[in-house]
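INFO batch 0412 | record 1 of 1 | parsing
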Amino acid sequence: MRVMIVGSMAAELGEAARIAIGRGARIAQADDVASALAELRGSRGADVVLCDVQLPIEDLITRMASERIAAPVIACGTRADAVRAAAAIRAGAREFLPLPPDAELIAALLETIGGDERAPIAVDPAMVATLRRAEQIAASDASVLIRGESGTGKEVLARHIHRRSRRAAGPFIAVNCAAIPETLLESELFGHEKGAFSGAIARRIGRFEAADGGTLLLDEISEMDVRLQAKLLRAIQEREIDRLGGSEPVKVNVRILATTNRPLEAEVRKGSFREDLYFRLNVISLTLPPLRERPRDILPLAEMFARRYAEVNGLPKRPLSAAAAKLLEAQPWRGNVRELENTIHRAVLLAAGDLIDIDAIELPPVEVAAGATNCGLGATRASSPAATAPAAGTAGLVGRTVADVERDLILETLTHCLGNRTHAATLLGISIRTLRNKLREYSAAGVKIPPAPNAVAAADRVPA
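INFO prediction complete | emitting tokens
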């Protein structure tokens, strides 16, 4: 985990840096925004930027966006900085970190952004077999294609492979091909030279160079535009990349891991994924089973999430009641581990007493789950015969336009997923790109969009 500190190390921000170092982070420091930008352009970048809200953090966020530097910015300040903190959040800061820093909050922040450094939980034989195969091939330099539905933990497995590899001392760099707009992804992967485009005021290395000597994860690679796939194929084959605006290639030494939630063979047949790139990536294939096919992992995962979110929120650690455990085991978990995590997070916040009981576990209404089946939204609890009858699913829809019903379904699903776009797209049976376009359309029409989970957390932490 690479952390950039922007501000003085003499006070509370320096203490945050020391805590992060104690948690295994590598720290770079800059006194001001200009120095931070220079460091971000010329080095291996950063996984997260912690910036003092007394500095012009809005300018930092704007400049990073214009130069296509994709890293979350965390606003840091005391309770007296509430107004500045709120302005930073509106400008695009991902979180607000109150100072003086809390060690457990720093740990949770690094874990959320950098990925869980613990081994994947594997109790069920289906998951044990997958993990055993992953560890068997981890030491090699072969490319690995990790398949599985959204929310099954593909990036967690990729990080585990890196930690067990000969490249473990090198960087692990993850690029979410679905989350970064197509216009920015090429620069994010390959970097750019000064003057390559408007806003490129200096050379900046990309994720391939940042991962040199380590591992590069191409997350949800099926979302990558086919035109960019040709340049990616050349980079993998020749072990060299061309920066945007560059005049000569740059040698790189990286191991490629890729994930997909779609069958790439079908994408190849449709012409949306290059066959030669598919064969280059698919040297070794690992398939993560969905949570419904590894039921013995449900309770160990739920208990782990309960401990984690109790710690993060400063709440007592409560075990699951027998009734709650039985309810969790009975769910099909269409959204997989990510849906279970969101459910337990809510339950930790809502629980009262000494146990997390059944009344703290909120699941989608039966009517919504049953009525949304044809739209790709799976039921999350068993549907009764009454709930599946046509009248029950459509009585409230008569007289409304299809567009209105679609909009409400998308927004309600997004709210259920605590603003998590990827999870919502999975439940709705659409791509993240389609969901993003729909939300942009609704926002332009003046519809309020549920905030992303980190924005909610940040708003909750801004002092009143």
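INFO post-check: Residues 366-395, 454-464 have pLDDT under 50 and may be disordered.
INFO record closed
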